[in-house]
Amino acid sequence: MLALGCDHGGYELMQEVKAHLDQKGIAYRDFGCYSTESVDYPIYGKKVAEAVAGGECEQGILICGTGIGISIVANKVKGIRAALCSDCFSAEATRQHNNANILAMGGRVVGPGLALKIVDTFLETPFSGDERHERRISMIE
Ligand code: RB5
Question: Which of 22, 55, 64, 114 could anchor a disulfide with 70, C-beta 3.0 to 4.6 Å?
């Protein structure tokens, strides 16, 4: 189960992400927001981060205007490794090296075509499991 969250700056891109996940049969829980009306991104970043950290959801996707604010919020929650990605190389590397559990994107930064490839790359790439990466991740905690 994926946890999804966005603010008004990410709402439109999130609708594209949801349609894409629906098409692929990937289950998700949408923690809002639910329109383009102005809202505060910390609310949604925290909800998704807590759902992932608490084990209700395995991974999450967060989108705000830049992806920056909402990823900063998510990374305040213990156990969360939220990676802001605007390219597929970073999405692949952050799964392999950081075992990132939340993908953050900027709805005003990436177009839908690229964003959906970033989502696929993030979801399909496993953690490498290499000892050096395990060690470095444990050092974060
Ligand atoms: C909202 O205008 C914008 O500040 C927000 O979506 C995000 O970009 C913050 O980091």
Answer: 64
